[in-house]
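thought: user wants a sequence for this fold. calling inverse folding tool.
action: design(structure=
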């Protein structure tokens, strides 16, 4: 049994959708980030960094959304989360997961939490640099999907599509959201119609996609 500690629309979103895709039983525990529940002594005991997600697997707590996606794919090889272990498609899948976590994950963290580096939303130079890095990734991924879609791995859906959809959603209030790029817009429409995505959207009561 899995237990996912999640924040609405947060980095837990892709893992929530992945659990739904696998079809295993899981429990959800909401962490109210706005109320600061992630810094409560109880939560810090299972996640000393005070962040979501935390996934409890067989009584042990694990963190980092990309790592959790990798773990779930490994634990459920029959699921649609990743291509066969050892295949070149799996190698490509690892590359995509790590690239997105490093680039989009890192830059979005700075976008939403500028105080991590002693900056603020008013620091236009830093803000614009982060925005450019994120937009450059959208351009790369847009070209990839236009050339060889409809999914990141071409014909087959996989867990990295849940990661990308989550990151794209986070850009919805940015000056140029991911959906400004045509292939990404088509991709978002397809992914948002996916039953697992619709399920997490409803369960987490997300608005504004
Ligand atoms: N690299 C981590 C990032 C986790 C993260 O920054 N989560 C945010 C929500 S998206 C969070 O917990 N924020 C609360 C806080 O930092 O106080 C992951 O992908 O799991």
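)
observation: tool returned 209 residues.
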């Amino acid at each position: 049994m899995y237990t996912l500690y999640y924040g609405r629309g947060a980095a837990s979103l892709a893992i929530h959708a992945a659990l739904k895709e696998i079809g295993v039983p899981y429990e959800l525990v909401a962490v109210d980030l706005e109320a600061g529940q992630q810094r409560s002594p109880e939560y810090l005991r299972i996640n000393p960094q005070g962040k979501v997600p935390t996934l409890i697997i067989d009584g042990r707590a694990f963190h980092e959304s990309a790592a959790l996606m990798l773990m779930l794919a490994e634990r459920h090889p029959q699921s649609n989360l990743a291509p066969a272990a050892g295949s070149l498609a799996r190698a490509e899948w690892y590359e995509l997961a790590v690239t997105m976590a490093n680039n989009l994950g890192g830059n979005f963290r700075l976008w939403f939490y500028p105080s991590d580096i002693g900056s603020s939303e008013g620091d236009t130079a830093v803000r614009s640099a982060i925005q450019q890095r994120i937009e450059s990734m959208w351009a790369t991924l847009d070209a990839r999907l236009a050339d060889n879609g409809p999914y990141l791995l071409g014909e087959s859906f996989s867990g990295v599509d849940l990661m990308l959809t989550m990151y794209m959603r986070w850009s919805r209030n940015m000056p140029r959201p991911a959906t400004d790029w045509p292939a990404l817009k088509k991709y978002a429409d397809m992914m948002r119609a996916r039953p697992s995505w619709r399920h997490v959207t409803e369960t987490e009561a997300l608005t504004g996609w």
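thought: summarizing for user.
answer: Here is the designed sequence. The CA atoms of residues 151 and 157 lie 6 Å apart.
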